[in-house]
Structure formats: C-alpha cells, structure tokens
Amino acid sequence: MSMETQQKRNAENTVEMDLAYAPSFIERQFPVNLVSMESFAERRSNQSQSITSLGKWWGRKPLVLVRATLVGLLVPATNNPVADREVFLKIMTMDGEGLRRRKDKPIPGKRLIEELSDLPPSTRARFLEAAKKANEYQIRRGLTKTERAELQELVFDRMSYSEKLEYCCRPEEIDGPSQESWKKINEHLGTDVYSLTDLIGVLGQRRFGHRPRVGDAFCGAGSIPFEAARLGCDSYGSDLNPVATLLTWASMNLVGGGEHVVQRVVSSQEKVFRLADKQLQEWGIDANDKGWRIDSILYCTEVLDPETQWKVPLSAHWAVAPTSKVVAKLIPDPASKSYQIVLVQDANDADLEQARQSGTIVAGYVTHPIQKEQGKDPSSLDMIRSSRKGASSSEFHGSGVRLWEASDVIPRNDDVFQERAYAIRWEETYFERRNGEEIEELTLHEAQLIPNLKELIEKDVLRQRTRRHFRAVTSEDIAREAKVKKLLDERLVEWQSKGFIPTRKIEPGYNTSQPIRERGWTYWHHLFTPRQLLIIGLLQSIASSELSDVESRVAVMLSIGRFADWNSKLCRWGTGAARESIGQTFTNQALNTMLTFASKGFGLSSGTWFMNLNPETITSHCEVRPLDARNLTANRDIWITDPPYADAINYHEVSEYFLAWYGDSLPSVFPEWYGDSRRMLAVRGNDHDFRQAMVDCYRRMADHMPSNGVQVVMFTHQDASVWADLATIMWAAGLHVTSAWCIQTERQAAGVREGNYVQGTVLMVLRKRMASEPVFLDEITYKVEIEVRRQLDEMLRNDDDSNPNFTDSDYQLAAYAAALRVLTEQQIEEIDPAREVLRERVPGEPSEVEKLIRNAVKIACDHLVPKHIDRDIWKTYSPSERFYLKGLEVETHGERRSGVYQELARGFGATNYDDLLASTKANETRLKSATEFGKKMLNGDAPFAGSLTRHVLFAIHTISKNGEVPGGLNWLRTELPNYWDVRTRAIVLLDFFGKLDTVTGMEHWKDDCESARLLAGALRNDHG
Q: Which among 74, 30, 373 has a CA at the least distance from the CA of 200?
C-alpha cells in the first residue's frame, strides 16, 4: 500500500471517528418551545393518536417528542447553529413550509376577516368587501379557488405557531418534508435522501456504522420503541410489567403491521362482537318488550340507617340527567322501610335545583326524608361502615366491612353496602317513512315485518333513527337482572377455570388496598356487576373458540382490558355538571369505589370494544419482551427511557387490574412471557433499595451500548434534590450529562389540579463517562460557574425574540444541566458516586451534588438580567429586589407555577418572599403590584422593606391613588437620604415598571404603569 493511499485512508477513518463522536444537535440546542406546542397539540388529539386506543397506560410520552428526540440525537451539531436549527425544523416539518404542508383545516371566515382588517387597504380590497353593517367586512364574493387558497395562506402565515397548529395535522400524519425542503436538508447534511427512514439510516450509518438501534428498558405503552421503529430504527422494548410489553407489542405488530393486519384484527373483533350480541338477544337480557336495548344502567349503593332502621339509597344528588331534564325522587315505603326511586321527566329548573340539593350523603353523613321527619341526627358513613368492627378479623376488614369470598358476585343481605339499579337509559331504534310531506314513524318490530326493508332503506324511503329514554327500574327489569345472575352462576366455575373471568385475589398495596378497605372486595371480579361479568366472560369464551392467529388474540385481550376499564363498578356516571356519560375506571391511578356508578349496555360498549387502529407499515427489526432492566442483554446504540421515579405511579399495582383479565392467557400466546406483575421486583420508592436498583438498571444499559452511544432519560420532577438524586444515580452508573431540556407535555386544559403540579418532561442527555483523571471539588465549583454562564449565553444567542424558544424554567434547568455536565464528566476526589447514591439522607441536609446544583441556579439568576436593566445597575440591587424584578419578568411570560418562583428565591437568596406575592396558589402565583403593596413594608426587618424598589413602588402607588405626580416625586426626595445618588437607579426601575402593561396578563398593573411613566419623566426633569 502506497504512503498516499495510507494517508488517505487514515484521513477517512479520522472523519468517520469525528462523525461517530461528534456532538448531536440535541446536545447543543433544542427548540423546546415549538416541540412543547407540538406535544400539546398531540395530547389534544385524543383518540386520533396512533397508539392510545390500544389500552390504558399512564405517563405516555407524545410521539412527536420521541421523534424530535431521535432526530436531535442523530443530526450532528455544526459550527452553524442557525442552519442546524433550520434543518432540524425542516426534518420535523415544523418550519414554515412544513406547517403549510400540514395545514389540513380551513381557517373560518370570521378569523380571516379579523386578520385581514389589519392589512393595508389595497391588500384588504383584494379579498374583502363592505358588509351590510357599517364598518364591517365580509369575504368578497366571486373569489376563485386560487384566490381562496392564496387568502388562506396569507392569513395562515401571519398566525403565531400555536395558532397555526389549530389548523394542522401532526407531523406523523404526512409523509415528511417537501422535495424542496429535502434539497436544503441534503445540502446541509451532505446526504442524498428523500424520506425520513432513509435519512435516519444514513445518519445512523455515519454515527454507529449501521442502522440506528434504539431501545427502551422501561417501555410502558410503547411510545419510544414504536416511534423509533416507524422512523426506520431497529427497535427494542422491554418492561418488567407484561401489560406494558403487551401494549408495546401491539403498537409494533397491530398498528405497525400494516393494512392487512389491521383488517384481519378488525374482522375478528367484529365477528366476536356480533356472535356475543346474537347470544345476548337469544337470552333475552338486553332488551325490553318494546324492543328497546339497554344503553346504560345507573346504580347506587344502599345502607341501613341505624337511627331510623330505614334502607337509604346513597347519592350526592338526584339530578340524574340535567341535559335530558330527568331527575329522581325518593318516595318513602313504610311497609318495607325503604324508598322507591321514581324518575321525573321534563323537569323544570326548580325540579333540577331541588334534585341537586336533595342528596342523601352530605359531607360524609347519611341524611334522608324520614330521618329529617323524625328529627334524628344524621349518621356518618364511617360509623355505619365500622358498625361490625368487633367481628372476627378473618371475616371482616378492620374498617368494618365484610371481606367478600371468591364465590360472591353480589352483596349478601347483611352486608353494609347493598347495590341497587335505580334507572336505565334505553335506546329505541325506529324508522321514519316519508309519505309525501308527512313522516310516519314505525317501530323496529313494525319495520322488520316489511319484506323489502333493505331495499327501502337503500332508496331512502325508510330512514333508521335512534333515541334514548330514561326510565326507573321496574319489576320486569329486576327479573331480567335475576336471569343475568342465574346465567352467570351456571357458567362461573367453568369460565373461571378457563381464565375467562378472574380468579386472582387483590394483593394489598398503596392503591389496591382501597377497594378491600372500603367495600371488602378481595378478588378482582368483585369490582364488576353480574351483567358485566357475564358479557366479558361471553366475549372471552367466543374469542377462545373462534380465533387462532396471534394478532387477533392480542387484540381481543386489549379489547377486554378496554372493556374492563370502561365498564366496572368504579365507573362514574356523569363526568361533568351537565354531561350524561360514563367515565372510565382509571380517571387517575386510584381504585376509587363509588356510591353511585353506571354500567354500559352492550351496544354502547361497541366504542370500547373496537380499537381505532390507524395502520402503519413497520419494516425494521423489532423486539419486545417482559424483562427486568437489570437483566437485559440487548445491545443498543441509543437508550431512551422514562423510568419509574419516586412512586409517582404504582404501575405494578394498577396493572394487576388488567392482568386479572388476561394474565392467564398471556403465556399461551407468548410462551416465553409471564402473566403477573412481578410486584416484588418492581423498581419503586425513593429509598436506598430504589436508588441501587436504578444504578443497576442504568449501568446495565451503559454496558450494553457502544463507547459513542447515548442515552436520554425522561423524567417529570423539577426539584433540585430530585435532580441531584437522579444525576448521582447516572453518575454512579458510569454516565455523564451532556445537556438537558424541559418540554411542556401536559395538556393546558387538563382540569383543575391542586399543588404545584408537573407540567413538563425533562430530557436529560447522557454519554458514557470516559475521563479517568480525578479532580478536586473546588476545581469543579469554578468550572461550574464558567459552564453555567457559557450555557446561558449560548441559549440567549440562539433565542428568537419574536417567537421565544426558551421559557424561564428552561434557563433554570439549563443551569442544572450545566452543573451536572461538569460534575459527572470525571471523578471527584471528595465524592464517590457509588457511595453517595446509597448514603442515608438526613432530612433537610443537602448533598454536595445538590449544593452544586443550587449554586448553579444562583449563578444563573445573577447572570440573567431582566431586559431594559443595565447589568452594572442590576448588581446594585439587593437579593430581595432582584427576586422581585426578575419575578415580574417571569410573570410577564405567563409563568404562574409557584415552584418557579420558589427556585428563583433560592437562587437569589431571597428569604421571606411570601409577603411579595399577591397570590400563593400553586398555579396562580404572581407578585404584588405597587397599588397592592399600598403602605405595607415601607419599614421593618424584612429584607425588601425600606429598599429603593419598595420606595419607588410606594411613590407609584401615591400617584395612582391621588392622581398627582408631585406627591410621588416628593416622597422619593424626602424619604431617600441619598436621592441624588440613586436617582438614575430609580429611573431604571420606573422604566421597567412602566412597560409591564404592554404584556397580556399584566392588566392589574395598568394604572400603576401609567403612574410609573409619569414619575420617570418627573425624575428625568428634576434638576434640583
């Protein structure tokens, strides 16, 4: 080999080595704001999401977040960060052109007119004309198709990113960037590809020498393995929990199996459902004598009031169906000492209000008409429940309820809680026959007697219609439910032996003890009514005899799981003030027993049984298996994980609800799988054993990735101590942090929540730790300061003022990440991570790692000066003043989480800052305005009291109150002994306050801002 050839080969190998170890895009920058908005949009799409219909799981990560993470890991960072960002957004179809390609909904006329009204008259005249009302416009009539498209694009381009998403499909719903975008992507990356899978393959080849191999050892519902496979990566997913691995397998092989698999699965589901429906009709238990089918059955619990000896049906209110104007009334029956429950149709507003106020359980006390009539005191439900506490502990729970036996499917007569059906919503099917101008109604029975019914329907002579009716439970309904119970009793033993109905006991735990404690339900089938058990058992029986292929059997398992989630005694009726619907069992992670609940009829359950499968064709190699992460053997280039952390969700417990239904069947479908939750092996808690288990898991993954491999850990805790714990775990596992970003993944309208709830997912990017030379802690402290400042400056340079990429939380998190990047890069003489991670925690005593993180936040707070305030002047303000001023800037960004302000206060060293807050509610936190301070804190021991900022705020308040500028000016001249020395600093404050009312959400500052502007002018003109 010639010298020239050898040199050329060495140069090529050097380039390949550089590419293999080159920093990735996500290690240098990440468009967190845009990815956050895309994640929100995906969350809002609900059932149209690709894999959510497979079944219930907790903490699913948005697919767009996974896609952005993978692309960010594989795209190299260059010396041109602006071009890197542009190319990343093009790949993700999150740039302007990509959004235009994704636009699939028309912008309504009203919105078009609003936007065009701000344009110059010449442009406006092209598309608008005067409306009949004065000073109003309408879309010009006669616009061509081309002009309408141009109008849509013109207005769309003027919208903000979040507004555009309202009219766009998700990135996964189109085939990637346009041809023009691909040209620019290829030019920047030096590639020649025109599809996402080809691009991922080429980038993987450059970095790892082959197609990227991506794994998730805590795969949950499968978002990470599924999206990796869809992008063309070889994908691996494992989880200790078999429910998680089943969902992940289904995402790869049902959704990812292509059109032919989806069609076969849907056909199998339809067959099982049709045969079950036929059997139910033959049994005569799903319809009344009019042919109406059961749509929903409403139940209440009933207890014996010890004061009156009356049986009392329990409900917080008796407004059964406010939208349908149906209420229930209790009619006393002295003979049986119980209440009949009758329904009032067409209830007026007074009836509805009375029904809302007539609950028989109020603040935990049982109250009812007879008790009030007799002047008896209401009995507490706890007292009624505990009336049998003296009974044998083997038969009764400590709370007083009887522990149900395996053979029980309904309460015994002497149980504390009885279950009573009190209303049925029926669905009537009828036909309309047009006869000239008149419409004749035919019942279902009448229509079925017409010989050419199908032909008349096709010709639109007959139209099928449905309507619903609420009716109180009759003796015929009670007899029908007795028949259901008899049919179940005849089949229970056989079906349980075959695994069609659960035989598993409920193992006590944080979540699972609740139904045992509150109802005495000790087996999983106790959480279902006889009708629910009969229907699910029937479906399982038919599926067992009719289906053989793996995909269809898995689909039925998941449908049974969905059925159980939406059809149990834990399903609430009416999920809102005026909604008439049935909620699912797991509205959260708790197994909440209900005093009133609802059961779906078979027809209504069709939406639960059938999964909305949008087929994808996955051709890459995929592997899924239930496995403890500590035992994995698969080698991956990239590990992306969302580990269980700090017992946020007890997956091992809540999954047992589903395993009760199909756990026994899993090994028959997948012989190498197991069918239990492996509760004893679950990684959970936050103690010594948990931290050791996490170290073992992540060391195992680190050992099973190449030297240039990378990991991303997703977690949802933003407390510095949690960061310190997790970072120490990763450090002890042989990994070091290279970057971290926070993506807002929670839905904006997810309901009212108490506490400073987590809104985002932190992405912590890690590589293998290669440096071996140890350093001393004091060296690290200095390096941390430099790295924090460098990181923040880089983020500020890459930010976009018109469409900010980073939030205030992101800058705080960047300080965490910068500190950890330095800390975990090499060994530290004073800290052994293996010992540190297992060290017993003393409450309130921060570790050395936590001290470094908190110091990083302090550096960040000092470094991030609010806009319009000079850095030199900023340094002259006290810690409490800086906290207040920076907090106001945070507030202008719409930030209301108390944790953000708490972290700011720590960073600035501002103590006792509660007095500066106008609201301390967790997600409504904000600071006081000048007027809200009033005369408070002008003097005193508080750090903020008597400060320059406090005096300036009072001067503003004086003007706002009296409307006289001299009063505010005189206050400053007389109360500030060094007025002339601090006048410039006061003007800076006034200019800052004077701009607050230009921001949406700061309207409470309006009068004070005007006063601040007037006072700033007075100070500038004050020359003594």
A: 74
β-strand partners of 427: 293, 468
pTM over 0.90: no
Max intra-chain CA distance, the chain: 111
Neighbouring-strand partners of residue 711: 639, 766
Q: Is the sign of the CA dihedral 166, 169, 172, 176 positive or negative?
A: negative
- Residue 852, classed as helix, strand or coil, is helix
Q: Distance between CA 296 and CA 674 in Å, rounded?
A: 36
Contact 427, 466 (CB under 8 A): yes
Residue 710: which H helix or E strand, with range?
Answer: strand 710-715
**Whole-angstrom Cα distance, residue 311 to residue 415?**
12
Query: Mean pLDDT, 10 residues at a time, over the chain (1024 residues)?
Result: 48 51 92 90 76 88 96 96 96 97 94 85 85 82 91 92 93 94 96 96 96 96 96 96 96 94 96 97 94 96 95 95 94 96 95 94 94 94 75 63 94 94 95 79 82 81 90 96 97 95 94 93 97 97 95 96 95 74 89 95 93 90 95 97 76 91 92 90 73 92 96 77 79 90 60 41 89 76 84 75 66 79 80 78 74 79 82 89 90 82 82 86 87 89 90 94 90 90 92 90 92 93 81
Per-domain residue ranges for the chain? 259-287+483-614+649-684, 289-473, 685-747+756-856, 865-1020
Placement of tokens 């070889």 in the chain? 234
- Residues facing 763 on adjacent strands: 714, 741
How far is residue 774 CA from its own chain's centroid? 42
Other C-beta atoms closer than 10 Å to the C-beta of 428 total 17
Q: What is the DSSP string of 181-228?
A: HHHHHHHHHT----SHHHHHHHHHHHHHSSS-EEEETT-TTSHHHHHH
The four Cα atoms 116, 117, 118, 124 give a dihedral, to 10 degrees, of: 60
Do residues 807 and 893 touch, judged by C-beta distance below 8 A?
yes
Quote the DSSP letter at residue 171.
Answer: G
